[in-house]
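Q: I'm writing up a methods section and want to include an example of the input and output format. Could you take the sequence below and give the corresponding predicted structure tokens, formatted cleanly so I can copy it straight into the document?
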Amino acid sequence: MTDPSDRKDQLEVLWLDPLAPETPLDQWQDLADNSVDPNPFFTPEFLQPFLQAFPAATVRLLVIRAKSSQDWRMAAPIGRRRAGLAVPIKTTWTSYFAPLGTPLLRDAGGPDDVAAFVQAGAGSANLMAMPFLPCKSRVASLAAEITGWESRWAEKLSRAGHSFGDLGEIQYKTAMSGKRRKEMRRQLRRLEDHGPIRISHLTGEEAIEGFEEFLKLEAEGWKGRAGTALSSNPETALFSRNVIKNRSLNNGVRIDQLWAGDTLIASLILFIEGAHVFSWKIAFNETFARMSPGAQIAAISMKQNLQSPGILEADSLAVPGHTMIEPLWRGRVDIGTLVLSKGPLGSSLASLTAVDLKLERSLRSKAKAMKAVFG
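A: Here is the clean output for your methods example:
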């Protein structure tokens, strides 16, 4: 157990504007590079392009810093939003483009750092939430140890991912065994009718060019028709291009491609952060839908991940129950919304938050079911 007041003379709290010129990007990036729980979306490479493209987003960077060394111990963007349908609450920042809310915690960080972070983040309401937080993360574990604070999982979900080493190989062989392997090989042979099969894994500057090919492919599909492709509006186009450019400079992005001759069949964008892989965006040529291009590129990427040295875990970032990725990436990534509260008022608000989230998810599921029935 720990109380942040025990180290108030050793730690200090900073609230920074992520876009301000005086915000020390080198210290921010150093923390991201040495975080025990990697999160590509809380790095300056990602967060700054997002906030530049969407200035309406009210986000402040909460930093816990050691007074003596000035080293950043813990940091995350914080915003105020509704947890579900009604209850306003301070949260670590997540979005449709960034479904991971794990704060950056230095690999040598401990419970005192997390305690100071939660106390500052919660503010006078004594209430904050961390959505899309991996349940097995070190931050989640340490948050449960803070003296005087109650932690509860307002919701828990499980999405596709995969392991590495022997377990990862078993998952891959299980997913690609028997009928599925035979069918996917047959589909690849049909693709060969349109030209020789070619697989590319683009990193560095090649990824920048590969991303332009991705944007074109995505815009030609249903997302383009619906206006939700990254290139459909100037803001998302600018933001995503800058993110890929930033990350490519540090080999933090890989773009996997499946070609048949000169035709791009499918493309998957992955972020590499520390020993973790996060699949960010996927696009495929709908003309070849009967050849399962999405499943083909997901299987290709998993195989490449397993062959990459130093990688320990992959997170699909996909919605739970995704029909394409879950049969292939057989591992599970358990995530949830962790709500932290203190005192009677904070506890009451935390209970309301849990009910609010449950109601929102129930209504969303019903709406999805009705759409499936009525179209």
